[in-house]
Each structure stands twice: as structure tokens, then as C-alpha cells.
């Protein structure tokens, strides 16, 4: 059972790290502020979600697992709204390539 | 070298790089953002040094208050002078030399410590069980060095008075000039409706958990201040004028309760700020709750700045 | 397992460092605002990995505060950047 949990953790956390890599590559390569913002928010949040998913079997107790999921939800919600805010500012000032 | 050392070295290099970027940035806005990033990275560094209470405070103050304060200063400079001002070369040279001296002093203290490092940490851990607290930092803050904590809270109020007193006489007692971004039904309104309830729960949790685990009144108070500022910036609550009685009451309730309990120490225990045995933890919790409120209000008003306009009657 | 988690934390740290390097180098102010967003996700991931690896649950609280205050810091950045263009902010149309 522990081995199954460990395999799950390793694969999920690795996938999450991969998404972080993808997000950073997007930051580097995308031509425009808005597309970079898109890459940063969507992909990094998904990476964080996968990392949290992978860490869930390693926590001790239901409360710790609940805390981890709540943090991810908070980052997801606030990240989505903050991205809209930043995008609004980009639109106001014009995006620079 | 273990993987962990690689992590630590990478973190240090990143922190130094961001620090250098803060100084080298061309625009004040970019420098402030780099400084906030620096603060948040320092929180990770504190975690690596096993100082989680300090990490919590660094994340709260460095991420929230410092950025707000400095951006407010940048905005005021901009409207006062019209463009970014640069200090002259002699001033920057002197500042650089002084900073280097401090850095050398700190490095010497850490790299060449005395034979027996003077520390009271083992004594604190031995006697902590008597206080009923589980968090040694809370023990030091509220039991062993309670006087320092009380004085710090008073200093916070003095700092606030200092900020208020920089207002011109004509607007004394007026409303702080916090730049508000009020657009009804906008994205910011939604954020200011979503985040503060979460923030308030987190602040209460931080204050409560501080007795046993890392946390405490200061971290909780800072989160409260950040949430209050968010609500004010979004225009959902008006910025209070500094002459409001309820504002004054909330500001002093923390230090006053702390002081009263301290003076009561003469009556029910042996000295100022002594606690009767067995009652230390409940008294400390009461003080922490009151302090959380006061710190939240004080920090929020600090970031709001000095009064700039008089209240319309 | 702990070594793997530490290694991943280091990897995510490298990604955050790269991202910061890219963001802060760009001249436009609007790009710098994304730094709060980057730290809000990357920093939280690093802290959660460290928390589970060292089995210190208090670090999860640091991640919680970081998430909350990174959102707040981003708001402060956006507001300041909007003020820099005009003293009276223009009305922002939203969908």
C-alpha cells in the first residue's frame, strides 16, 4: 500500500513539476504580455494542483490533506481573479511585445 | 553535497540576484516589485532556517505591508516631483559603505562565533511547560520578554502618530489619502468580496494557533490589515478619518489590555507582567486577541498614510 | 521520497528563478506585475513540498499566508501601475 502511494506521489509531483517547466517555457517564448500571463496562470496553477494531489497521500491525517486542498483552491480562485486584474491593466496600457 | 544543499545554494543565489536587481532597477516601480519578491523569497529562506514564526511574519509584512507602503511612497513622489528622483552620488556612496560595514559585522558574528555561543534557548525549553504554551517563540514573547512585546506595540502606535503628524495643519483629523480604485461591479470588487472572509478566518487561525504552533498576534494582525486595505482600495468601505473614536478605541485596546494585565501582575502574582500560575495561557490568549485587532488596525492605517482631506460634514 | 521532494522543490525554485529573470528584464511595468502571480503559485508549491519533506506542518501555514498575500500584493501592483498613467483612473470596462 505504501509503495502504491509512493508511486502515485512521485508520478503526480513529477507531472506537476513538468507543468511548471511548461509554464516557464511559455513565459520565455510567448510574444505578448497577455499570452505570457495566460501561460503563467493556467499552467502554473495546474502544476500546483498536480503537486498538491501528489502530496495528499504523504500527509498524516484528514485535516492536513484538507488544508492542502484548501490552499490550492485559494490559489486557484485568487489567481484567476488577479489575472483578470492584471489583464485589465495590460489592456489599459497596451501590451508591449 | 546533498540535494538539500543544492536547494539552499540556489535559493541564496536567487535572493542575492533579486536583491541586486532591486538596487539596479531603473524605475521605482520595478524596484519595489523586486523588493517584494525579495521579501517573499526570504520567507522561504527563514523556513529553511527552521524559523517558521519569522517566515510567517516575513511573508505577511514583506508581501503585504512593505509593498503597499513603498508603492504609496512612489506615488506621492511621482505626484510631487513629476518623475523619479535620483539621490546624488555621495549619498549613495555613504549608504553603500555603511551597508557594507553592517554586512561585514554580521558575517563576522556568524562565521567566527565565540567558543560557547551564549543562548538561553535550552532554559526556555525546560521551563516552557510551566507556562502552558507549546510554542517557545510565544513563550519568549509573552512570558519571558513580555515587556519588550508591550513596548513594541506602543512603538507601533507612536509610528502611526508620526505618520499622522506629517499632515498639514489644515487637514488634521481628516481622511487619509489612500488611493482608491473604486469601480462598482469590477474585477477588483469581486476580489475584495471573496478574499477578506478567507483572510479573516486565516487571521483568527493564526492568532489562535500561535500558542502551540508558529503563528501569533502579529501575523494575524498583518493579515487583517491587508484584508482591510483591500476592502478600502476596492471602495467597498470608506477610509475612516483619523478622528473617529472607534478607530482610536481599536488602536489602543491591545496595548491597554496588555498593560492592565501587566499591572494586575502586582496584585495576583509577584511583579509587573507576572502571571498567576495556571492562568498564564488564558491571559496570554486574551492579550493576543486584543493585540491582533490593534495591530491590524494600526498597520492598515499606517499603509493608508497621513490625512489628506477633511471629512465632508 | 524526501530526496525526491527536495529535488522537485529545487526544480520548481529554478523555474521560479527563470521566470523572475524573464519577467524583471522586460521594460514594461505590466510584465513586472506578473511576478506576484509567479511567486503565488511557484512559492506555494516549493513550501508545500518542503513541508511534506521535512514533516513540519507549520510550513503549510506559511504557504497559506504566501498565497493570500501574493494576491494582495498583485492588487497593490495593479493599482499602482494604473495610477502611473493617469492621476484619475479611467473607467475599466469588464466582461
Tell me about this structure.
The complex is a heterotrimer of chains A (97), B (313) and C (95). By secondary structure, chain A is mainly alpha-helical. Helix content of chain A is 86%, strand content 0%. In chain A, α1 runs antiparallel to α2 and α2 packs antiparallel against α3 (62-93). Chain A is elongated, with a radius of gyration of 16 Å. Chain B folds into two domains: 1-86; 120-313, no CATH class. Helix content of chain B is 72%, strand content 2%. Chain B contains eleven helices and two strands; from the N terminus they run αααααααβααααβ. Chain B has helices at 3-24, 28-48, 52-81, 89-111, 121-131, 136-144, 146-164, 187-209, 217-233, 245-268, 280-304; strands at 175-176, 307-309. Chain B is globular, with a radius of gyration of 22 Å. The mean pLDDT of chain B is 87. With 95 residues, chain C is mainly α. Chain C contains four helices and no strands. In chain C, α1 (2-25) runs antiparallel to α3 and α3 (34-54) runs antiparallel to α4 (58-85). Mean pLDDT of chain C is 83; it is low at 86-95. Chains in contact: A-B, A-C, B-C. Chains B and C meet through α1, α2, α3, α8 and α9 of B and α1, α3 and α4 of C.
Query: How many strands, which pairing sense, and closed or not: the largest β-sheet of chain C?
Result: none
Q: Specify the helix fraction band of chain C.
A: over 70%
The major sheet of chain A is characterized as:
none
- What is the total tally of β strands of chain C? 0
Percent range of helical residues of chain A: over 70%
How many extended strands of chain A? 0
N→C terminal distance of chain C:
46 Å
Rounded mean pLDDT of chain C is: 83
The structure class of chain C reads mainly alpha
| Protein structure class of chain A | mainly alpha
Tell me the count of domains of chain A. 1
Helix and strand string of chain A, N-terminal first? Answer: HHH
> How do the SSEs of chain C run, as a string of H and E?
HHHH
- Global morphology of chain C: flat
